[in-house]
Amino acid sequence: MLSYQHAYHAGNLADLQKHALLAWMLDYLTAKPKPLSYIETHAGRGLYDLSGPEATKTGEAQAGITRALSEGWLPDDHPLRHALDQIHRMHGPDAYPGSPLIARYFLRPEDNAHLAELHPTEHEALTQVGGFAHLHRQDGFAMAQAVCPPTPRRGLLLIDPSYEVKADYDAIPRQIGQIARKWNVGVIALWYPLLVDNRHAPMIRALQQAHPDALTSEVGFPPARPGHGMVGSGMFVINPPYGLQDEARRIEKLFKRL
């Protein structure tokens, strides 16, 4: 369960959907002069090198964020574009931010952040760029259960596991249900892969039944390589900010071109 390393997949098409919606939500939430909490259960290392051997081996970033930027999927005024521009100025044109550094771009001094990462190597790398947040080397769900409801109560939780443990699909509806009951005003965002064996479907049905007002947004794309099981990406958002559905539908239309 500690073998997954996102460096091989950073900037891929799934990241594009997830990070575009995450940046949009954070931009919306921080537009109001009220402090917020940002919580992330599976933070990863926070910063990736798209010229590194991991990214070049798979070519997923080339088919993802590189193509999206060259084809104008992200307008100049898009919140994710703003975050990427800053990362490129600070770390070079081949740098790509994980969700912690996307959040860092939007968070203000009065905001509070908690990042969990259990993998020892990834956590060590996260300490190099995650000084703006409370860092937790522990199971992300345990951290979220412990800090929710956070202070400030206004805020966003991103759940983005690797799904290497198949039991996650059964456990996530229960985990989210517990958190949502304790933190009924929080924006709770779950990323999940769309797989050829459809193992994600019962999880999403359970979540939709329990949270009928939540937003479900899914996009499809070709497998990264022959035999690869992921053929799409989904975001499930409880308490979606106003206007998020329009941005989600815009992104879905872009993916239909693939």
UniProtKB/TrEMBL annotation:
Keyword annotations: Methyltransferase, RNA-binding, rRNA processing, S-adenosyl-L-methionine, Transferase
Gene name, Swiss-Prot/TrEMBL: rlmJ
Claim: Flavoprotein is one of the keywords in the record: no
Record HAMAP family: 23SrRNA_methyltr_J
Lineage: Bacteria, Pseudomonadati, Pseudomonadota, Alphaproteobacteria, Rhodobacterales
Transmembrane segments: none
One Gene Ontology MF term: 23S rRNA (adenine(2030)-N(6))-methyltransferase activity
Top EC category: transferase
Species annotation: Paracoccus laeviglucosivorans
BP terms from Gene Ontology: rRNA base methylation
Residues that bind S-adenosyl-L-methionine: 19, 42, 99, 117, 139-140, 160
Site (Interaction with substrate rRNA) residue list: 4
Classification via InterPro entries: RlmJ, SAM-dependent_MTases_sf
GO cellular component: cytosol
Function: Specifically methylates the adenine in position 2030 of 23S rRNA.
Active site as annotated: 160
Oligomer status and interactors: Monomer.
Family in the record: Belongs to the RlmJ family.
Cross-referenced Gene3D superfamilies: Vaccinia Virus protein VP39
EC number(s) stated in the UniProt entry for this protein: 2.1.1.266
Name under which the protein is recorded: Ribosomal RNA large subunit methyltransferase J
Reaction catalyzed: adenosine(2030) in 23S rRNA + S-adenosyl-L-methionine = N(6)-methyladenosine(2030) in 23S rRNA + S-adenosyl-L-homocysteine + H(+)
